[in-house]
Write the structure tokens for this entry.
Amino acid sequence: MSVGSGDILVPGLVDLQINGAYGHDFSSDPRSMWRVGARLPEQGVTAFLPTIITSRPEMITQALEALHDRPPGYVGAEPLGLHLEGPFLSPRRPGVHDPALMRSPSLELIKDWMPGVAMMTLAPELPGAEATVKTLLQAGVVVSAGHSAASYEEALAGFAWGIGAITHLFNAMEPFSHREPGLVGAAFDSKAVAGIICDGVHVHPATVRAAWRLLGPSRLALVTDAIAATGLSDGAYRLGDREVQVQNGEATDSVGHLAGSTLTLDQATRNLLAFTGCTPAEAVAAASSVPASLMRLGSRSDWVRFDEDLRPLATIVADRVVWER
């Protein structure tokens, strides 16, 4: 396919990391995942991982209950399971997560979180990480390295255990250095799929280009890390227990740390095309077939019809048109 050639039909987009949208925050109101999911087809999204940031165990339990309590007659993007972004994160790289709620990896905790968890982000350098990763993998959970101060060697060890992804590459991890490549360098040397927030704010377009050249079209997955402000105007919003201010579409906490994004997945696709000069087919794959392959979705009857500018015209979930422009 090519831009300018007319309408195109492509596999549905899959968002691996979305905290909320359209005024709803999953980490404070988990049931809102269904209200957001009903609107995600507007972006061409046909499947998603409702993401719960570092929270108290009872909130994770509520999120699992919400996931299993499917509303009657629900029509929208399919929630594939929770993405738990925490609590097994490094207090040295918390981002906007609350370090007071972070814990070392625990087999006792995770047994209460399955089934229902599809992906977990953790810091591989933490005590107990290896046993936890291996147990999660045995349960079919995709494990992603993120919010981590891991050295290059510690990160490579995690990939050897079976960690298959990296959460928002470059963000909330040790910066890449020519002497200390850290998790970023290990990601480039691994076979893991790297999620990236392609909004031009979290990662500079030149850095997106470099990552694209190093990872190739089969290992870069576009994610939004979207928050409640997505699809709405600037203002004050919630991300878990924290207040987030959005100005000119950029979300920050009270001390100026980036706090998720207001990105949509179709816009991320257009951004990747603009930032890297990749083909439209490669840009779409980074938001569809690459994340779908990571989640082992197999054959699905989910499609999006784009116009020549990669803007959604219609979205099909399980052979049913669920949204049209």
